[in-house]
Automatic annotation (TrEMBL), chains A, B:
EC number(s) reported in the record: 6.3.5.3
Intracellular or extracellular location(s): Cytoplasm
Transmembrane segments: none
Keyword Mitochondrion on entry: no
GO annotation, biological process: 'de novo' IMP biosynthetic process
Record protein name field: Phosphoribosylformylglycinamidine synthase subunit PurS
UniProt KW keywords: ATP-binding, Cytoplasm, Ligase, Nucleotide-binding, Purine biosynthesis
Organism from which the protein derives: Frankia canadensis
A Gene Ontology cellular-component term: cytoplasm
Principal cellular location given in the protein's record: cytoplasm
Pathway: Purine metabolism; IMP biosynthesis via de novo pathway; 5-amino-1-(5-phospho-D-ribosyl)imidazole from N(2)-formyl-N(1)-(5-phospho-D-ribosyl)glycinamide: step 1/2
Length: 86, 86
């Protein structure tokens, strides 16, 4: 799982749009909204999320998934069972 | 924190694009990529992420942040300290 968020100092118009829609929906108590992206990477059967694989995913995140100039990213491992809902 | 992902049966062209770029980057062992959105909602000082607040955020996720026809969403609480990286 790779989470990508705009850096805090970068303006986030999508988050701002959500934030400004909240009063219209009668929601209070929320003072900030930031929108980002998430990527679920599914590993092949038998491939363990060990250090080497995570290093590869980290490299991927920095080169393909995120733009390190304006975005922060975070790689984390999630078990398949922990997925989904809605 | 609200995570929004396309339902598994919905085609995800962005994820497909990432997946098809992997061999070019020399990355193997990844068999699936799905791209989604994540929203960080910051609560006002003194507002606890209790049941009532989570119910409001859940409602928000279903009406504003996600399209329940094609997307699944998941609301979870994250402590501010657990944030960031990159």
């Amino acid at each position: 799982m790779v989470d990508v968020m705009l850096k805090p100092e970068i303006l986030d118009p999508q988050g701002q749009a959500v934030l400004s829609a909240l009063p219209r929906l009668g929601v209070s108590g929320i003072v900030g909204v930031r929108q980002g992206k998430r990527f679920e990477l599914e590993l092949a059967d038998g491939v363990e999320a060990d250090g080497a694989v995570l290093a590869r995913v980290e490299h991927l995140a920095a080169t393909l998934l995120a733009n390190p100039v304006i975005e922060d990213y975070q790689v984390r491992v999630e078990e398949p069972a922990a997925e989904a809902a809605g």
